[in-house]
Amino acid sequence: MRIHPGKDDLEELTAAWTGERFGSGRPRVPDDVLASLRQATTEEAWGHLFQAGYVRQFAGGWRETHPGTVVVGRAVTAQFLPHRPDLDDVVVAAGAREGHHDADKQNSWVIETLENGDIMVVDIFGKIVEGTVVGDNLGTAVASRTGVGAVIDGGIRDLQGLSELPGGVNIFHRDVDPTPIRGVTLAGINIPIRIGGVTVLPGDVVLGTPTGVAVIPAHLAAAVAATSEDTRVRDVFGKQRLSERRYTSAQIDVQTWADDIETDFQQWREEQNS
């Protein structure tokens, strides 16, 4: 057994991505694409993904350590299962072979792999009591390593301390409990996991907003960013023309504008860029 998949395994798992990769084989979506996606809304991202056939890419119903803070990062995934002694023995031995020697701190194994621009995404089967993946100490480690945060389909503890982490970081979670994490075993890092009704692969781009969490496959991230930017520009134009009473809401609030409105938009866009 391996805790971390081999490089070849990760490349096969994420074969749709043809760009740069980390040494581990995980897709490395460029920083400029991540920066562009920070301006995107959940609805913009979801709309493009839906049209591309990815119809199960949104999970809602979260609490946040920093409500309203939008985060974007490259997914480092992890899955925990209910503790079973024989499985845990195998995991502890495999972890030791891969350099993880704290058998009772398997959540820390995940954090040790994080890099700047990552977001830790953890499936702990919605467990809250004794499912607290991070408190303020480990949360500080996540924040300092990633500058982004985490998505935890389970619990956290020390919310007061976590809420004081520096700006720009946000940890999406299901609920809070004072108990420490126990009664679980790490099944793997950078493997396919489930968050709500969404399958998450390592290297996916996670967009966390006040609406919820959108998971963007790495190979679609640049296209989602471009589409979102176009949508934002069209929104500015549409609202301006509505305020000017040039068009009615029925004319603007449609998927495809009439030819004369599209022509007007293209001319307006050229003027804005000149």
Descriptors:
single chain; 274 residues; alpha/beta; Glucose Oxidase, domain 1; nine-stranded mixed sheet; two-stranded antiparallel ribbon; 22% strand; elongated
Produce a short descriptive summary:
This protein has helices spanning 7-13, 31-37, 42-51, 85-97, 106-111, 136-146, 159-162, 221-243, 249-252, 259-273; strands at 58-59, 63-64, 71-82, 118-123, 149-156, 170-176, 184-189, 193-195, 198-200, 205-209, 212-216. By secondary structure, it is of the alpha/beta class. Helix 6 links the parallel strand 4 (118-123) and strand 5.
Structure report:
With about 270 residues, this protein is α/β, with parallel strands linked by helices. It has a domain at about 5-30 and about 55-215: Glucose Oxidase, domain 1 (3-Layer(bba) Sandwich), CATH 3.50.30. The protein contains ten helices and eleven strands. A hairpin with a 2-residue loop joins strand 10 (about 205-210) and strand 11 (about 210-215). Helix 3 (about 40-50) packs across helix 8.
Q: Which whole number gives the mean pLDDT?
A: 96
Give the DSSP E fraction (strand runs of 2 or more residues). Answer: 15-25%
Indicate the CATH topology of the domain at 7-30 and 54-216: Glucose Oxidase, domain 1
CATH architecture of the domain at 7-30 and 54-216: 3-Layer(bba) Sandwich
Measured on Cα atoms, how large is the radius of gyration?
21 Å
The CATH top-level class label of the domain at 7-30 and 54-216? Alpha Beta
Outline the low-pLDDT stretches: none
Helical segment count: 10
CATH superfamily of the domain at 7-30 and 54-216: Ribonuclease E inhibitor RraA/RraA-like
SSE pattern: HHHEEEHHEHEHEEEEEEHHH
